[in-house]
Amino acid sequence: MTQNKTLLNPDKWIDSYADYLFNYAVARVNNSDLAKDLVQETFFAGLKSAKNFQGKSTERTWLISILKRKVIDHYRKINSKKGQAEVRMNFYTDGENEGNWLEERVPQSWDNASEKNIENEELRSQIEICIDNLPEKYAMVFRMKTIQEFETEEICKELDITSSNLWVIIHRARTQLRKCMEDNWFNN
């Protein structure tokens, strides 16, 4: 037990890990207020379960594993019938973070940078509109798998679906996204 106290230093968690945990959370929930709440819950859960820390990983890795569970619990709550009544998904309405997930995947321009940036912004906006027009479950699974890069097994477990069902949902979501983009972007 005394060994655990030397391995964990909760007094320095905020200074040492808050920014990293926040960036991790906001990349997965795309809502800064929710990300802040999840980080706060992570620190609280870490304090409550400090006696269970075995020192087999770093503090940061241990806190990330707690935060990961908090993110999964958030999506589980949204997916449940009770959670759907209590929580509405609120993606892409977070001011400066709006759509950052896509910017990370846009190739860097070597010439005509301002024209490319405008085009990329318009493309990103259209993709977001198309994702928002998907059925709620399709959009949720698509975001979790494609944008937030959750593992297949993790999504299936948390949403209580089979891997076959997941891939059917992904295929249907991609088909609907392709049609939406063809109708609203490529054919304009």
Automatic annotation (TrEMBL):
Span of domain RNA polymerase sigma-70 region: 14-77
Domain of life assignment: Bacteria
Gene3D superfamilies (alphabetical): 1.10.1740.10, Winged helix-like DNA-binding domain superfamily/Winged helix DNA-binding domain
RNA polymerase sigma factor 70 region 4 type domain location: 127-177
One of the GO biological process terms: DNA-templated transcription initiation
InterPro entries assigned: RNA_pol_sigma-70-like, RNA_pol_sigma-70_dom, RNA_pol_sigma70_r2, RNA_pol_sigma70_r4_t2, RNA_pol_sigma_r2, RNA_pol_sigma_r3/r4-like, WH-like_DNA-bd_sf
Mitochondrion in keyword set: no
Single annotated GO MF: DNA binding
Pfam families per record: Sigma70_r2 (PF04542), Sigma70_r4_2 (PF08281)
Record key words, sorted: DNA-binding, Sigma factor, Transcription, Transcription regulation
Similarity comment: Belongs to the sigma-70 factor family. ECF subfamily.
The protein, known as: RNA polymerase subunit sigma-70
Organism: Polaribacter porphyrae
